[in-house]
Amino acid sequence: MPLLVAGSPLGLPIPLAARYAITRFRSRGLAANTICQRLMALALFYQFLAEHGIELEERASKRQFLTQEELVGLSDYCRQSHAASKQAVVTPSFALLRYTVAIDYFCWVAEPIIARIVDDARRDAAYGALQSFLKITRSIAPRRVLVQSERLGLLPEQRTLFLRVIQPGSPENPFRPELQFRNYVMLLLEFQLGPRGGEVLGLKTFDVDFSESPATLTIHRRHDDRDDPRATPAATKTYGRLLAIGDHLRDVLDVWLSKEHRGNKARYPAAAKHPYLFVNYRGEPLSIRGFRKIIETLRRRHPTLGGLCHHILRHDWNDRWVDAAEEEGWDSNISLRDQKYAMGWSDNSSMPLRYAKRAIRNSTNKKILRLHAKGASK
């Protein structure tokens, strides 16, 4: 589990921050990467407090909290890029996350102090002051940008190019010959099933079941997996699920697992020591950096793929799902239910609206044009 430490990376954990992470994040089953992101936001808050000479517990005991001017300063601070955070660009959503973590931590520290006040009237007054403080924090919080550049799936011509250039042996394939087949299998799996990057890296060889027809692939939640030797372990944020795979994907996975590729001890000597499906050139579990480098290489060779990243393929899957649902006339409620299952989202999730924006936008505009044409013909 990530910990916030004082001073250098070799410093001791900050006890209060560790308790906060356990009670607020770890208890909810958040992935290690998600906890790390929130602790980085907390570190920024500690930096803000130090620069302004603010003692958190002293303020809470005096029921002073943060002044309106300090909150405005904190809101601005959360919008800025700081060298220590390694965040080159601070999006409105990330600025809001930083601010939200800071305020939540302040309240988490303050509430037990207030609870220890013996006098009922003074304790009630303190809780009232805390609620007033929270009301002010909401009015000053960084705002989300309602209309901004957003991730969309691939354009049809980009999709055609992508599927062509990842083919092993293609003269347009940018990867070294010995890595072309592995990258093809991985990218095809992402294209056809739309998993998150952490889910791909967390797949194990026995998650693919060739004994059934059709063959299946199971995505599991495996936080704190003892098999994972990577410095940054693979993480699955969504629910586990069992997905059917088509004949072609089944065949290429079968070849990848054979002695010709992953099972080749001479080519991948370390692969026999662990169960992970995708490996680096030595046979060790593929790292997040190596995983990202695949797309970076593809993007450099083919700039027309635009801002292609692994997660764009997940957006693209959802675009294609919505297009197919409309073209084939699927029942909308059943289609939405199945889409949520395939992506590992909860039944109440609003993610389908976020992940299929290009398809939804195109469908909406087609209907608008038909409506205009119908009105013009009268």
Descriptive terms for the model:
about 375 residues, mainly alpha, 3 strands
From the alpha carbons, calculate the radius of gyration and give it in angstroms: 25 Å
Report the major sheet: 3 strands, antiparallel
The average pLDDT score comes to 89
Report the helical percentage. 40-55%
Shape: globular
Task: List strands and helices in order, with pairings.
Elements: H1 15-24, H2 32-51, H3 56-61, H4 68-79, H5 92-115, H6 120-140, H7 156-165, H8 177-193, H9 197-201, E1 208-209, E2 216-219, E3 241-244, H10 247-257, H11 288-301, H12 310-328, H13 332-343, H14 351-355, H15 357-376
Antiparallel strand pairs: 1-2, 2-3
Provide structural commentary.
The protein is mainly alpha-helical. The chain is about 55% helix and about 5% strand. It is built from 15 helices and 3 strands. It has helices spanning about 15-25, 30-50, 55-60, 70-80, 90-115, 120-140, 155-165, 175-195, 195-200, 245-255, 290-300, 310-330, 330-345, 350-355, 355-375; strands at about 210, 215-220, 240-245. It has a 3-stranded antiparallel beta sheet with strand order 1-2-3, covered by helices on one side. Helix 8 (about 175-195) packs antiparallel against helix 10 (about 245-255). The radius of gyration is 25 Å and the shape is globular.
